Every structure is written in structure tokens, then in C-alpha cells.
């Protein structure tokens, strides 16, 4: 069952000193400073991780799956984000990383690059069959989907209805493994290795699936030390190469962790990629206004430079990006996925959403419409009397939000230091 109130981002009160770093960084104005501590408003939070990225006191953390939680399963499968391949030195091959994952406790490891290529080919088919609306918006970034549901609800119908590669890969494994292993599905754990806390939210509360095919998500930075330790055992590495022959990696799919990587393989459609939460919101504002209709597909990721800039990775994102680009060049542009397989899965709706992403109703000022109108008028009057300095000292990110909090009964006009000074 979906947990609509599930959030991955949490605040450790003991470490929080009430600074305004997270308050200023939050794109949906979901954070307040109350009684000297940061507080997250659940209805507004989209788990983008911007607060996690900027907190200088390590007071904000993300809830992801622990490695110990895998003991609940008889058979464990890892589906690592291709970001993982950029976290180690330039001489470390993806096959060595996959072998290291087997060595630290996973029974099987599934490379995602070929599924990324499959998704790209399916997107090409979908765009060819559906000329309108334009532009469609990719669904790979769960934060973008949540942002659209809450801030741009009119664009929900423009989210490309093809599941992201991590869910497609898990669905394939769910279809194959129980029969092959003769084990009940619930005894097989399929875990995503992620650079992003929002993937955990998409698993616990999927926007377009009745239930996620994944059982959890482990942060790359949490599992990194174990992988690094396994990679150092060079003698065993040679044995693992013999036991597990070279995996064929997709150059098209390998680049998915970089901004522009999702749409790089499209040959017949115009695509635009944007990364970073500020630029993403700016572009979505334009789409909502009816602009950019000459673009077929819009790839949005809230992390800078794409998933490679996720807050749960280890390596400097610029070095990781350089490494991924080397791997993309080494793998080449040749497709490794059979177009017939793509077409068959696509037309069976195997790759599709269970249901469209639904708009999330905004927080009403009051359940009584007449009261809500009166409160809205009062809010504008309060806002007109505020200094509009947007300093954040009051505990709200800006003066308009403070006025909103006041009419909701969650703040006082005296919280504004300038009003306080005048009254004195």
C-alpha cells in the first residue's frame, strides 16, 4: 500500500542550529525555522535533497535502505545506477564494480545501461505515435514528477508514460527470477543503488505504479566503502573476471547519469535537457505558459548535471562526469538492444505506467470556501504591510510566505524583526 506521506528527507533536531541555509535552498518553500530549529512541512516537500546538499552542520539526512536490511531476503539482486561507474578511479572497469557487488553479498547484479537504451528506443516509438501534446517530459527523475504534481498540475498529462529504467529492470527480474529460482517473489530482494534520496520515495510512494517492483534503495555513499574494499582484493578480481565474463555495456545507456543522456540516443525527435532545480522550474514555467511546443521531449533533472550530481554520491561530480564520458566513448554508439524486443515490450504495455501521475491538491487556506476567500484577502493586506526584504529571520523564506503562515495560524506578525522594531 502506498504511503502518501512518506518522505526520505529528515532533520536531526540535536544537530540543527536554526541557520537559514536549508530555508533559502528549498525550491517549494517547505522549510520553516521554529523555536530555533528547522521544520519540514510534509505537504510541500518534494524530497529534492537541496536542503541536504547545503546544510553545513549535517543536521539533515535521508532515509534509505540499510545493507543489513537485505538479510530479510533469500536472494539479493542489485540494480546500480550508472552513476556508480563514475565513483572510482579511471582504471576501474564497470565489470570489476559489478563483481565487487557480488563479492560483498549480492547474488546477482543487473547492469542498467541496456535498459536505459531500451527506454530510449521505446520513447522514440511513443513520440512517433503521439504527436500531441508537446513537449512530453521524461519521468526518470522522481522529484520532477512530484514537482509537476504539486506545482504544475496542468502538466501531469505531459509526463511521458514510460517507466524509468530502474523500474523496468526490476519488473523484468520480477517476471523471470521466481520461476528460474523456484522461490516466492517476496523472498527475492531487488535493490537499487542510488545517488538520490528521492528514489526511496518513488519506491515507497510511486506516482505512476500501483506498487514499485523494487524493494529498496541503498545510497551509493553508504555502500561505497564496502565496494572499495572488495575492489582492492586484486587476486580475487582475476577470479571474478573468469567466473563472470565481460558484460556488454550500452554506450547510449551509460550516459543516462549525465544531463542530456536520456535523450542523447533519440534520432528523429527534437529534445532539450535541463538540470538543476532552478532551471528546471524556469523551463516548466515556460511549458505551463504554452511555450516550447516545437520541442518533442524535455528531459529534466533537479540535480546539477543530472543524476551524476546527486547528493548521495561520493566522488566530485566533475570528476565522475569525466569518467562516465570516458566510458560512453569506450562503449561507442552501437545499439546493443534488439529493436524487435523493444517493440514487443512497448506494444504489450510492459514499459508503461499503471496509471497517469495525478495532480496533488494544493493546501487550502480553509476548508470553507468563504473563509478561504476572506483569509486570502487578509493575507494580501498583511503582505502589503510587510517590509518585503525576504530576509528569513522570521523563520519563513520570504515575506509572502510569512503572510500565508500568519493567516493559517502558524506564525505571528511580530515574527518579522522589522515589525517588532517598529512596535517597540
Secondary structure topology:
Layout lengths: L8 E3 L9 H5 L5 E4 L2 E4 L9 H5 L5 E3 L12 E6 L13 H10 L4 E2 L3 H17 L6 E2 L4 H10 L13 H17 L6 E7 L3 H7 L11 E4 H12 L2 H10 L7 H4 L16 E5 L1 H12 L8 E5 L15 H15 L7 H9 L21 H17 L13 H9 L9 H7 L1
Parallel strand pairs: 5-6, 5-8, 7-11, 8-9, 10-11
Antiparallel strand pairs: 1-4, 2-3
Structure keywords:
424 residues; 4-stranded parallel sheet; 3-stranded parallel sheet; 16 helices; 11% strand
How would you describe this structure to a colleague?
It is built from 16 helices and eleven strands. About 2% of the residues have low confidence. It is α/β, with parallel strands linked by helices.
Quick overview:
This protein is of the alpha/beta class and 424 residues long.
- Major sheet characteristics: 4 strands, parallel
Measured by DSSP, the beta-strand proportion falls in 5-15%
Query: How many beta-strand elements?
Result: 11
Q: Could you give the order of the helices and strands?
A: EHEEHEEHEHEHHEHEHHHEHEHHHHH
What is the CA-CA span between the terminal residues?
54 Å
Structural class: alpha/beta
Q: What is the approximate shape?
A: globular
Whole-angstrom Rg: 23 Å
Show unreliable segments: 239-245
- Number of helical elements: 16
Mean of pLDDT: 93
Fraction of helical residues: 25-40%
Q: Spatial order of the strands in the main sheet?
A: 6-5-8-9
Amino acid at each position: 500500500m502506498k504511503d502518501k506521506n512518506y518522505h526520505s528527507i529528515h532533520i536531526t533536531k540535536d544537530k540543527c542550529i536554526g541557520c537559514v541555509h536549508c530555508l533559502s535552498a528549498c525550491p517549494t518553500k517547505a522549510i520553516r525555522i521554529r523555536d530555533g530549529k528547522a521544520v519540514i512541512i510534509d505537504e510541500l516537500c518534494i524530497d529534492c535533497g537541496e536542503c541536504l546538499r547545503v546544510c553545513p552542520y549535517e543536521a539533515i539526512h535521508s532515509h534509505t535502505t540499510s545493507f543489513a536490511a537485505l538479510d530479510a531476503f533469500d536472494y539479493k539482486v542489485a540494480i546500480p545506477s550508472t552513476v556508480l561507474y563514475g565513483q572510482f578511479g579511471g582504471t576501474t572497469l564497470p565489470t570489476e564494480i559489478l563483481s565487487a557487488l557480488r563479492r560483498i553479498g549480492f547474488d546477482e547484479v543487473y547492469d542498467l545501461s541496456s535498459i536505459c537504451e531500451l527506454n530510449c528506443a521505446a520513447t522514440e516509438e511513443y513520440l512517433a505515435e503521439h504527436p500531441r501534446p508537446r513537449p512530453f517530459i521524461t519521468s526518470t527523475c522522481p522529484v520532477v514528477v512530484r514537482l509537476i504534481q504539486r506545482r504544475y498540475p496542468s502538466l501531469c498529462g505531459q509526463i511521458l508514460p514510460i517507466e524509468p529504467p530502474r523500474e523496468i529492470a526490476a519488473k523484468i527480474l520480477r517476471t523471470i527470477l521466481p520461476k528460474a529460482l523456484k522461490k516466492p517473489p517476496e523472498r527475492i530482494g531487488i535493490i537499487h543503488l542510488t545517488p538520490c534520496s528521492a528514489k526511496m520515495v518513488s519506491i515507497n510512494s510511486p506516482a505512476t505504479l500501483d506498487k514499485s517492483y523494487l524493494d529498496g534503495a541503498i545510497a551509493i555513499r553508504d555502500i561505497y566503502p564496502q565496494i572499495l574494499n572488495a575492489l582492492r582484493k586484486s587476486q580475487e578480481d582475476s577470479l571474478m573476471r573468469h567466473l563472470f565474463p565481460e558484460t556488454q555495456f550500452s554506450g547510449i545507456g551509460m550516459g543516462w547519469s549525465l544531463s542530456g543522456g536520456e535523450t542523447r540516443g533519440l534520432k528523429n525527435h527534437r529534445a532539450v535537457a535541463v538540470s538543476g532545480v532552478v532551471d528546471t522550474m524556469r523551463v516548466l514555467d515556460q511549458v505551463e505558459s504554452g511555450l516550447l511546443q516545437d520541442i518533442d521531449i524535455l528531459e529534466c533533472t533537479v540535480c546539477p548535471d543530472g543524476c551524476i550530481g546527486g547528493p548521495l554520491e561520493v566522488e566530485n561530480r566533475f570528476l565522475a562526469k569525466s569518467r562516465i564520458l570516458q566510458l560512453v566513448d569506450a562503449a561507442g554508439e552501437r545499439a546493443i538492444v534488439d529493436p524487435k524486443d523493444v517493440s514487443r515490450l512497448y506494444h504489450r504495455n510492459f514499459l508503461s505506467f499503471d496509471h497517469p501521475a495525478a495532480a496533488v491538491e494544493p493546501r487550502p487556506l480553509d476548508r470553507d470556501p468563504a473563509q478561504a476567500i476572506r483569509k486570502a484577502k487578509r493575507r494580501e493586506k498583511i503582505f502589503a504591510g510587510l517590509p518585503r526584504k525576504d530576509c528569513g529571520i522570521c523563520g519563513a523564506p520570504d515575506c509572502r510566505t510569512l503572510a500565508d503562515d500568519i493567516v493559517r495560524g502558524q506564525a505571528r506578525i511580530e515574527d518579522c524583526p522589522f515589525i517588532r522594531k517598529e512596535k517597540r
